[in-house]
Design brief:
mainly alpha, Isoleucyl-tRNA Synthetase, Domain 1, about 0% strand, flat
């Protein structure tokens, strides 16, 4: 049966010849009474781990609980050193999703001490996997749930632990409900088919009933669940937008050191254009949210970020930010904070995360949900988002 998620460590371990050689002799070499042999074994492991952590870190995790205390101590020390780097830590996270359950358990326990909430996440993942297995055996459609599970793993690996857990539990709950519904429906079909002989003897024409039941039974395995698909699309848009916002906020925060003061700025044409474009986008996003299409709302914000902000404004005015241009500072401060206000109704946790990290110490309000709109967008309200009109705009001097 096809795995939901194939860990990179399983792939790398199976094809890395050197790691296979190391695995065969590592425990005996590390347990040698000859200090030089032990030192040589440690150097060999760590040298290869720096070159290919995904195939070597798992070996240390695999033998982490070896009986020999001397070997255990050396493995623990090497693993501690190697996972101080980002590639090493990422390899340790990847071990959580290995087919080797013992390795996964050990990795989760090690990460738990680093506040990764890994033990709970691994337990939720295994519960979801078991439900997928049940669904496949019962021919219950679960492809969308499998995609949500993979998305939750990727979110977790990005360091968004709480969000990853939320997605995983959502996948589990959706599939539990679907399996229960499927079980009830199968019971209903059996009951109807059991009654048809009695109905036939009573003079009821049962051929149409049986034909409808047959069609229903054949349709169950391939039924799409549109609510789950819409939820999955929302999660994907959220992840995509999170990455864009992170990139923008990092770019801006390295250049804008203090909150710009409006009175000190004289806006240029590009500044006025991006501010007007934001208002147009705000109207589009608000209408989309009101229509009950949150994924499309996030998509509109993502397109604005990719197009008007990155490809247009920053491409032409990035040097102004580097040169401490107050107007460019004011413009991008307003747009970036405004974007967080814009997406807060749909993804409040993400908006709050970025606000606390990049804006909280320079704004008077404790939360993105209470901070006022930036001055250029101060008249924005959820139910009355103004439209940017052609001609002389509100940002013209």
């Amino acid at each position: 049966m096809k795995d939901i998620y194939v860990s990179d460590v399983d792939i790398e371990m199976s094809r890395d010849v050197e790691s296979l050689r190391i695995d065969r002799h590592m425990v005996s070499d590390l347990g040698s009474r000859v200090p030089g042999r032990r030192r040589k074994a440690v150097d060999r492991v760590e040298e290869h781990a720096h070159a290919n952590p995904l195939s070597t870190i798992p070996l240390l995790v695999k033998h982490y609980r070896v009986d020999n205390p001397r070997v255990r101590a050396l493995i623990k020390a090497s693993l501690s050193r190697l996972t101080q780097s980002e590639p090493g830590e990422q390899a340790l996270i990847e071990c959580m999703f290995s087919r080797n359950s013992q390795m996964a358990n050990t990795a989760a326990e090690l990460l738990e001490s680093r506040n990764y909430n890994s033990v709970n996440f691994l337990a939720a993942y295994r519960q979801a996997k078991n439900l997928v297995t049940q669904a496949r055996r019962g021919e219950v459609f679960c492809q969308d749930i499998e995609e949500l599970i993979v998305d939750s793993i990727n979110t977790y690996k990005e360091g968004r632990f709480d969000q990853g857990m939320t997605y995983m539990m959502m996948a589990r709950d959706l599939l539990e409900d679907r399996l229960e519904w499927h079980s009830h429906l199968k019971g209903y079909i059996k009951d109807v088919l059991r009654l048809t002989p009695d109905l036939s003897r009573s003079g009821v024409q049962t051929d149409p009933i049986q034909e409808s039941i047959r069609h229903l039974a054949s349709a169950i395995p391939v039924r799409e669940y549109h609510d789950a698909r819409a939820l999955l699309e929302l999660r994907r848009q959220e992840t995509r937008l999170w990455k864009q916002l992170w990139s923008l906020e990092e770019y801006i925060s390295k250049r804008i050191k203090t909150k710009p003061i409006r009175e000190l700025t004289v806006l240029e044409d590009d500044d006025k254009l991006i501010l007007q474009s934001f208002l147009t986008t705000a109207r589009r996003v608000d209408d989309t949210i009101q229509d009950g299409r949150p994924a499309d709302a996030l998509k509109a914000v993502s397109e604005f970020l990719r197009g008007e902000v990155s490809a247009e404004y920053l491409a032409r005015n990035g040097k102004r930010l580097d040169a401490n241009d107050e107007a460019a500072w004011f413009t991008m401060w307003s747009v970036t904070l405004g974007l967080l206000k814009l997406v807060a109704p749909v993804i409040p946790n993400v908006a709050e995360e970025f606000y606390q990290q990049y804006f909280r110490d320079r704004e008077d309000s404790p939360s993105i949900h209470s901070v006022p709109w930036p001055e250029p967008f101060s008249e924005l309200e959820p139910e009355d988002v103004p439209v940017a009109r052609p001609g002389k705009g509100r940002f013209d001097d």
